[in-house]
Amino acid sequence: MALFGVSLFTLFSLLLVALFPSLCFTADPSIFYDLRLSYITASPLGVPQQVIAVNGKFPGPLINSTTNDNVNVNVHNDLDENLLMTWSGIQMRRDSWQDGVLGTNCPILPKRNWTYQFQMKDQIGSFFYFPSLNFQRASGGFGPIIINNRVIIAIPFAQPDGDITITIGDWYTQNHTALRSALDAGKGLAMPDGVLINGKGPYRYNNTLVPDGIEYETIQVDPGKTYRVRVHNVGISTSLNFRIQNHFLLLAETEGYYTTQQNFTSLDIHVGQSYSFLVTMDQNASSDYYIVASARFVNESLWQRVTGVAVLRYSNSKGPATGPLPDPPNDFYDKSWSMNQALSIRQNVSASGARPNPQGSFHYGQINVTQTYVIKTVPPEIINGTLRTTLNGISFVNPDTPIRLADKYNVTGAYKLDFPDQPLNRTPRVDRSVINATYKGFIEIIFQNNDTVMQSFHVDGYSFFVAGMGTDEWTVDSRSRYNKWDSISRSTTQVFPGGWTAVLISLDNAGVWNIRTENLDRWYLGQETYMKIINPQENGATEMDKPENVLYCGALQYLAKDQNNSAGSVLRGNSKLLFTLLVAFFALINISS
Ligand SMILES: *[C@@H]1O[C@H](CO)[C@@H](O)[C@H](O)[C@H]1NC(C)=O
Ligand SMILES: *[C@@H]1O[C@H](CO)[C@@H](O)[C@H](O)[C@H]1NC(C)=O
Ligand SMILES: *[C@@H]1O[C@H](CO)[C@@H](O)[C@H](O)[C@H]1NC(C)=O
Ligand SMILES: *[C@@H]1O[C@H](CO)[C@@H](O)[C@H](O)[C@H]1NC(C)=O
Ligand SMILES: *[C@@H]1O[C@H](CO)[C@@H](O)[C@H](O)[C@H]1NC(C)=O
Ligand SMILES: *[C@@H]1O[C@H](CO)[C@@H](O)[C@H](O)[C@H]1NC(C)=O
Ligand SMILES: *[C@@H]1O[C@H](CO)[C@@H](O)[C@H](O)[C@H]1NC(C)=O
Ligand SMILES: *[C@@H]1O[C@H](CO)[C@@H](O)[C@H](O)[C@H]1NC(C)=O
Ligand SMILES: *[C@@H]1O[C@H](CO)[C@@H](O)[C@H](O)[C@H]1NC(C)=O
Ligand SMILES: *[C@@H]1O[C@H](CO)[C@@H](O)[C@H](O)[C@H]1NC(C)=O
Ligand SMILES: *[C@@H]1O[C@H](CO)[C@@H](O)[C@H](O)[C@H]1NC(C)=O
Ligand SMILES: *[C@@H]1O[C@H](CO)[C@@H](O)[C@H](O)[C@H]1NC(C)=O
């Protein structure tokens, strides 16, 4: 009988391998992280203030992963308010349950923790995480994410000698609760107090402009080596020009896609955007060099203090950097240089991405658009007595019950599927309108920025082709200016004030996905919505089922147990089938013995 049992077991194992190739013996590796968010006191600009640290560090630690890794991140909320962590640019294939925004997740309450479980499915590149609620990103809580290529996949450049991550962002000495109160009181944000580089204030390049005693960032390098420098704008609302004195920035990647390689002396990086540069240390180290991130499209003489300065130090450096900073682009009144620079960023269509096939093998320019959405922003306005922002006249309020959870439990009225595909000429209102998008559709979204500030727009769960940009009102004729061959794919695009950006998206990722401005103040006041993309033949294969540790809230509050008692399971989607098989297996063993 024992022998029979073994052969049965073998049979069963084979059956498992056949049924679950990714689950069983050829499983993708799992990686585990604990991220604990707490307040610390820090003085990045010389003024003590409340900062959100991750594991005691500001910025938070790197999540270093490889394509297809199963990531388990246990997020601990030691703050005094609700928390959700979102993973900017990570596509969460079929799994918007892990996306960490209020339309898809109930918040993690103070003093609780929750484990996110997702796969870095078919992605490579540079991304970052940040807390998505309550304006918290303005106080920190962010950190970088790297998805490395699998060793069998070639990268379109020589293996760099080192990897350097740099976060840049505008910063206020007021904490996020104070900034939030200002917005709640109907006031806009004032000029930021500075720009931080890796959470640190400016190097004292000018004794008048920078006070003494500020800690600055130093990046150590060796002469002759080439580094992959990954730069993320994690700030609130300021576009930044990034440059390294006397060094070329050879652009290589943006938010998960390889670009054609070209040298820049400086690049505009807008809020929420990520880039990789290959930087060769080809100078003779007569001194250290400045690394600069300065506010863009502002009156430089008024915004001088909104400049981040770090130091690039060769191991054979002969002394500190001195003299003026490398010049920023001088075009306060002219956006064309910046737009041309943005349009010059092209996809390397012959390089492999996360898979061996070329990045350009999806010929997006030949696919017919199934629906067009024109999404328009205007400056903040008063709706019902409070200052709000809108998309197509709708200022979004999050549903009390997350959208897919409401669907699963037949909660009615949680949201509406009536987000308009055009900016309608009607009274702006506060609402829960979501886009009813068609699974497998190929859509065109035109972000029309009728606001007075530079904006970035981000779509969760997807990357999109940035087909075109203009400085005017978009019309159907604008399509003739689209790049239909090698537009860059990314998840965050800039939209110039008074202008438009058109993106093309293939809707192959079922779920509910946030569309938002990355400008934190505009987002906070209502400039977001969701796209609900559900396969009408949904059978569990195109969308993951809710995770076993799912949190409940809103109309489903009654289902909430003590959050800390719900141990997460690694088995998702297939788990029910697996359970059935196991039952069958043990039943067989019982019969046979
Ligand atoms: C945040 O700022 C407000 C207003 O300045 C202040 O009252 C509050 O104490 C600050 N919070 C912390 C934890 O420092
Ligand atoms: C990330 O992990 C890989 C191994 O998987 C390692 O080679 C690399 O040095 C790590 N990168 C960083 C920046 O720590
Ligand atoms: C909370 O963290 C503990 C370990 O610190 C873990 O065992 C538990 O599963 C976590 N809870 C959730 C809901 O992730
Ligand atoms: C420092 O900045 C001030 C204000 O812009 C300027 O007047 C001064 O010349 C600068 N000093 C040096 C040494 O560059
Ligand atoms: C970029 O600049 C480097 C010098 O740092 C040079 O060696 C390289 O050839 C340039 N590459 C391109 C594509 O222009
Ligand atoms: C190398 O350093 C010397 C001063 O030590 C300087 O005169 C020279 O211009 C530098 N060369 C380069 C290529 O930067
Ligand atoms: C910038 O601000 C300064 C000081 O207020 C002012 O004199 C100057 O005219 C402004 N420059 C531009 C281009 O608006
Ligand atoms: C796109 O539409 C045109 C006409 O509307 C049609 O002729 C063509 O076959 C379509 N292409 C694809 C790939 O469906
Ligand atoms: C929701 O409604 C559907 C169809 O009306 C029903 O099959 C399902 O059991 C309901 N689900 C819950 C959790 O009540
Ligand atoms: C203003 O608020 C009232 C009450 O909450 C609501 O009924 C009405 O629809 C709101 N109006 C707009 C334009 O949002
Ligand atoms: C959403 O769109 C689908 C077609 O894609 C349609 O069948 C359905 O009725 C729409 N739902 C609503 C609420 O408009
Ligand atoms: C907003 O749109 C109106 C009407 O098309 C136009 O007159 C105005 O210049 C626009 N403003 C901006 C900042 O785009």
From TrEMBL:
Its main location: membrane. The keyword Lipoprotein applies. This is Monocopper oxidase-like protein SKS1. InterPro entries: Cu-oxidase-like_N, Cu-oxidase_2nd, Cu-oxidase_C, Cu-oxidase_fam, Cupredoxin. One of its GO terms (cellular component) is plasma membrane. It is found in: Cell membrane. Residues 38-150, 163-317, 401-537 form the Plastocyanin-like domain. The keyword S-adenosyl-L-methionine does not apply. Residues 1-26 form the signal peptide. It is a lipid-anchor; GPI-anchor. Its cofactor is Cu cation. One of its GO terms (molecular function) is copper ion binding. Belongs to the multicopper oxidase family. Keywords: Cell membrane, Copper, Glycoprotein, GPI-anchor, Lipoprotein, Membrane, Metal-binding, Signal. It comes from Quercus lobata (Valley oak). It comes from the Eukaryota.
